[in-house]
Each structure stands twice: as C-alpha cells, then as structure tokens.
Design brief:
Elements: H1 5-20, H2 23-28, E1 30-37, E2 45-46, H3 48-58, E3 66-75, E4 78-87, E5 98-108, E6 114-123
Parallel strand pairs: 1-6
Antiparallel strand pairs: 1-2, 3-4, 4-5, 5-6
Length: 125
C-alpha cells in the first residue's frame, strides 16, 4: 500500500516552485545535502546551491507548460513517479511543441524534503 500523502505534498510544492522559480521555494523542496540527478551518466548536482542554480538557469517559469503525474510505487522513503510534461510552445532549446515522458525516483526525508532526486525523461516524437 502506498502512502501518497508525503509525495503528493512534495509534488504540489515542486509544481508551485516550478511555476514561480522562487529560490526559497526551490530550496524548501530539498535537504541541504541533496543529490539531484538530471540525466543518465551525468554526475549529480550536490547541495541546495547547485540545485537552485541549475533550476533557475532553466527559467521554465517563463514558458507555458503542463505536468501530469501518477505515483507508481513506494519502497520505504523512495517514491516512483511517472509523469508527462508538455511545452505547447517548446522550450528555450526547441521551437514548437514538445512532450516528455518522465520517470522520477524521489527519496524523501522525515520532514518531506527530497534528499535524492533522479529523473529520467524521453522526448515523445
């Protein structure tokens, strides 16, 4: 049985931080020693400053997007989330609509902050 309350609260806060690109809201999502993996075979970002710098550099609050998700599994403090992210006008790296399938592995601490975040994503052609 999945206790979705912690991850649902975290996902709601994540979504709000994504909408606002507010440095403090981003920092509240993660532990001070967070490991944030942005892509396979890349070293993780480590610590709040690295994560907020990366996040703010993406500037996704400036472009329209939608995000739908489903919590697939929980094993202790690890949650598996499947999501679809759509950019109807594209991103800063692409012109035209883009949709990504996402799989996230989110490990939460007792306070509900992520101490590890791993994202896998695939562009839908």
């Amino acid at each position: 049985m999945i206790d979705e309350t912690p991850i649902r609260e975290w996902l709601a806060a994540y979504r709000h931080a994504w909408l606002t690109d507010d440095r403090q809201e981003i920092a509240r999502l993660f532990t001070s020693d967070v490991r944030y993996f942005t892509a396979p075979y890349h070293a993780p970002l480590e610590g709040i400053e690295a994560v907020t710098g990366y996040w703010l550099g993406e500037r996704e609050s400036d472009i329209p997007w939608s995000f739908d998700h489903q919590v697939l599994a929980q094993e202790g403090d690890l949650f598996v989330v499947r999501a679809v992210t759509s950019y109807p006008e594209g991103t800063s790296e692409a012109e035209g609509p883009e949709t990504f399938y996402n799989l996230w592995l989110v490990t939460l601490d007792a306070d509900g902050r992520a101490r590890e975040f791993v994202e896998y994503f695939m562009l839908v052609e």
